[in-house]
Design brief:
- With 496 residues, the chain is an alpha/beta fold.
- Helices cover 46% and strands 12% of the residues.
- The strands form five sheets. It has a five-stranded parallel β-sheet, with helices on both faces.
- The radius of gyration is 31 Å and the shape is elongated.
Length: 496
């Protein structure tokens, strides 16, 4: 006779142990047979004493409990389990059913209540439901107890970042596209790398492409590659980012800066999984996971006609919003300490501690440039001073007059992704983080102590002010500053 074929979830069910507490051997064996047919294993206890011993020894996931036992009442067992905070799900089985008995059993911790007689399907369904509830409760406890101070390359354990970590973990195993949104400097590329690093694709390449930093006439070649002779300067065949990321992750940063004609080609690539190099008619199949990022509101870009709606729905499957540094509380100090130690090691300095007043100064600042701005301040302080303690005086020289953060609306980063109403409100009710700087010709403000700022700091202040005044449009800011856009992109990359 052939062996009975196991059910699809038999392996999982075999790991779930069930205890049947029933003083009638015939009924106990019947219940066990019902469960066995569905792939569950079960032990039998005929008395209350045997039941308590078996519970302590085998730690069952589900207990089928008869309320009338030879040596004690089932309610007494429920009280014991409740007092011990036992996690087993207890299903009361009795022929002595009444509302009073049911209420008392539930009050003492029973999970369910079944009256004799009952069909096999009723018993099996009840057991499965209770096992699923127990599994979900375990997941909730697991999430609640796994707060991290670090996640991959991220630092911080604020509630806002814990939500981000969980989103990353939840979507990492999937192949769906992820759309990361957040202000400049919040770590969007870091988030994309984390998604790749905890995914099954981590052994393959992570390829990042900044759509805003590449000239429009070259971006198609950068993504899809080209063949020799496709255009002036194409002296040999070249694989693009899509082919380089085959089997891995393709990260398209500042996706909303991509020209509309190229968006149509990207959409076709997503739909077919095939790329056609510039100058070629031969498609090449690749397998990549798309992760995109923007500091804008992508839906507003769609409504404005700057981003294709069909591409939006293809890429905006799992949205992840990165909070600004001003909403991360004590994370600011943890990140600052890490940066201080890293830059001190690079510069061969002795810095290893942030002084009390400096800590207050860091927490009071609104950080419109987010972690990127914090990194610049800490690095400058390390280079220009001697340790071992970072003081508030050192920071004042670099940060200018104190600008107290009063919440998300105090962050007047016009380059940020925010809901439209919040953005309009912040523009109407807040002052700029720096004194108004004319895009052309104005000198930077003096530092708090009256000293003239170093040229590098003054240059950065003017450039960032110009970009903010141009609503984050780097090319437009470059036009007003009368410099090449590539100059600004290079400097932004250096400051990242």
């Amino acid at each position: 006779m052939a062996a009975t074929e196991a059910t699809p979830d038999q392996a999982t069910q075999d790991n779930e142990h069930i205890l049947v507490v029933e003083d009638s051997p015939t009924l106990a064996l019947t219940y066990r047979e019902y469960l066995r047919r569905s792939g569950f294993s079960a032990d039998i206890a005929e008395t209350g004493k045997e039941a308590l011993a078996a519970i302590a020894d085998t730690k069952p996931s589900v207990i089928l409990l008869d309320l009338k036992l030879p040596d004690m009442d089932g309610i007494d067992i429920l009280k014991r389990l409740n007092a011990e905070n036992n996690s087993a799900r207890t299903i009361v089985i009795t022929a002595h059913g009444s509302v009073k008995v049911a209420v008392e059993a539930m009050r003492e911790g029973a999970s369910d209540f079944i009256l004799k007689p009952f069909a096999a399907e009723r018993l099996v369904t009840t057991v499965k439901n209770n096992l699923e509830i127990q599994r979900l409760e375990g997941l909730v406890q697991q999430y609640a107890g796994r707060d991290k101070k670090k996640f991959d390359k991220f630092i911080g354990d604020s509630q806002a970042m814990q939500a981000v970590y969980r989103m990353i973990e939840d979507c990492a195993e999937s192949k769906v596209s992820v759309f990361i949104m957040g202000q400049s400097g919040t770590g969007k590329e870091l988030c994309a790398e984390s998604i790749h690093n905890v995914s099954p694709r981590k052994t393959k390449r992570f390829v990042a492409l900044n759509c805003a930093a590449i000239p429009e006439n070259l971006i198609e070649s950068e993504i899809f590659g080209h063949v020799r002779g496709a255009f002036t300067g194409a002296t040999s065949d070249r694989d693009g980012a899509a082919v380089s990321a085959d089997g891995g992750t393709l990260f398209l940063d500042e996706i909303c800066e991509m020209p509309l004609d190229l968006q149509a080609k990207l959409l076709r690539f997503i739909q077919t999984g095939e790329v056609v190099p510039v100058g070629s008619n031969t498609p090449r199949r690749v397998n990549v996971r798309f992760v995109c990022a923007t500091n804008r509101n992508p839906w507003e870009e769609v409504q404005a006609g700057r981003f294709r709606e069909d591409l939006y729905y293809r890429l905006h499957v799992v949205p992840i919003h990165l909070p600004p540094l001003s909403e991360r509380g004590q994370d600011t100090l943890a990140i600052a300490q890490h940066l201080l130690e890293s830059f001190a090691q690079e510069e061969d300095k002795t810095f290893n501690e942030i002084g009390p007043n400096a800590r207050k100064r860091l927490l009071a600042h609104s950080w419109p440039g987010n972690v990127r701005e914090l990194g610049n301040v800490i690095q400058s302080a390390v280079v220009l001073n001697e340790g071992p303690v970072l003081t508030a005086v050192m920071l004042d020289r670099l940060m200018g007059p104190q600008n107290i953060s009063t919440g998300p609306e105090a962050n007047a980063n016009a380059n940020a992704y925010r809901p439209t109403e919040a953005l309009d409100k912040s523009r109407a009710n807040t002052q700029p983080e720096t004194p108004a700087v004319s895009v052309k010709g104005s000198l930077p403000p003096k530092s708090q102590n009256g000293a003239i700022e170093p040229l590098a700091i003054a240059e950065r202040r003017i450039i960032e002010a110009a970009i903010r005044q141009c609503d984050g449009k780097v090319r437009l800011a470059a036009k007003h500053l009368e410099v090449n856009p590539s100059t600004l992109y290079r400097k932004l990359k250096e400051w990242a």
